[in-house]
Amino acid sequence: MTDYRSKLTAAFYATMSISFWGVSFVSTKAVLVKLDPFSLLVLRFGIGTIFLLLLLLIQRNRLLISIKYVPHLMVLGILGVFVHQVLQATALLTINASAAGWLISFSPIFTVILSIFFLDERLSIIKAVGMLLAITGALIVTTTRSGQSFQFAINIGFLLMLLSTLNWAVYSVLLKSLKIPYSPLLITYYMSLIGLILTTPFIIRNRAWESLSLLSYTEWAHLVFLGVFVSGMAYWFWGKALQVLEASKVSMFLYLEPITTLIAAVLLLHEKVFLISATGGLIIIIGVIIVNGQPVPMLVSYLKNMRL
Questions:
Q1: What are the boundaries of each domain within the chain?
Q2: Hey, how many other C-beta atoms are within 10 angstroms of the C-beta on 91?
Q3: How would residue 225 be classed by pLDDT, with cut points 50, 70 and 90?
Q4: Dist CA 246 CA 77 (whole Å)
Q5: Does residue 175 contact residue 113 with C-beta atoms inside 8 Å?
Q6: Taking the model in full, what pTM does it have?
């Protein structure tokens, strides 16, 4: 019973993380109406860093780290926080949130490609088919409606979003290979702090404080959500889920992220969702699932293990 409850709790944590990350595209899109991407990120990182620091102090965790791992955290902070979030926020200036949600699920494909080139993994026929499906789905998602017809429209926003997925794949490989011996919460705190330090000069250059008075209560709520729940709690919950469940089982929850983004985009931003875009997104997910290998038996085994 205890084992069942711990797994159920871990599944809840993973689901909450994915939900927060999925809605983050919608919140970012909503705030970009008033703020430029860099100013938005400064406020988000600032709120997130303060929240994570308070969380560490409440848990009485040590904040000091060995100078040996400072370069590791700098690299992870630049790639996983600064570059990644700048790419996504800039991309959302020209594409809608639901399209961003579909395209972000393309990230595992880049991870596989990097593994083939740098980790000597073999490319099987099944993986090749999955990759082709995912690429086809990405092209379909970038299809936009013009009048009564649909056209392929690869604009800078789509390219930036795909570049952010490649960047995340590089970050994920580095995070696994560097093996920093600290808690996920402490690592996340320093990464958020690095993001804050790197983006602060831009808010000074853009004189973003002049726009703060223009923000409505709703837009401030989106900023708090991005800082506390997305930059803070989502990473923390993800780490808690990984403490109980295997990484392969937790990663299956990632397939829920674009669905969460789609629902939030329709409800909060009133975005129109075309069938062809949804079809492309589903094709991406199917391709990613095939690349990751036999998800159905894994899911069945996981559900069996969850039983009493």
A1: 2-306
A2: 26
A3: very high
A4: 25
A5: no
A6: 0.72
